[in-house]
Amino acid sequence: MTTRPEKGQTAPAIVLPAFPDANVTLGGGKRGQVVFFYPKDNTPGCTNEAKDFTALKSEFDSAGFDLIGVSKDSLKKHQNFTEKHSLGVTLASDSDGVACEAYGVWIEKTMYGKKYMGIERSTFLISADGSILEVWRKVKVKGHAEDVLSLAQSAQKLTTGATC
């Protein structure tokens, strides 16, 4: 049975192989995380989403959040995807689907009347202590990275006490 972690809950802590890093732990670290699940490397929506997050990487860094994309693609596909599009995000490989199940993004989908299982495009904003600050499900790519950044910056101000 798939769980569906929500805002206010503790993010599942899962170690995955990643590119360019050797491994990454979802839901845990010294900084906050933006964990975005996407269906497949080198498809139009997934490419635009990864490029949008890459374009805002310095702002996410300043807000104290690392960017981690997760799909079931292999590390080799992630490497090719990263190099082809000059991506600046970490891409984790969830080939066995453990993270997809734990985060509740492995769902039944329908295309042209046929049902199949796939990754629901979803994003989790996770604080450095592992609590989920926000969840976006069934993400529409256009403007999404900016929406996540806005909330990440607000969260950073709350934790540091900054007022301007």
Structure explained in plain terms:
- This protein is α+β, with helices and mostly antiparallel strands and 164 residues long.
- Helices cover 32% and strands 30% of the residues.
- The chain is built from 5 helices and 9 strands.
- The strands form 2 sheets. It has a 7-stranded mixed sheet. Strands 6-7 form a two-stranded antiparallel sheet.
User: What is the helix/strand order?
Assistant: EEEHHEHEHEEEEH
Rounded to the nearest angstrom, the distance between the terminal CA atoms is 44 Å
Count of separate DSSP helical elements: 5
Strand order in space, largest sheet: 2-1-5-4-3-8-9
Strand content: 25-35%
Instruction: Please state the CA-atom Rg, rounded to the nearest Å.
Output: 15 Å
Shape: globular
Percent range of helical residues: 25-40%
Structural class call reads: alpha+beta
Strand count: 9
User: Average pLDDT across residues?
Assistant: 93
Largest sheet, in brief, is: 7 strands, mixed
Low-confidence residue ranges: none
Annotate the secondary structure layout.
Layout: E1 14-19, E2 23-26, E3 32-37, H1 44-55, H2 57-63, E4 65-71, H3 75-85, E5 90-93, H4 98-102, E6 106-111, E7 114-119, E8 122-126, E9 132-136, H5 144-160
Helix pairs in contact: 2-5
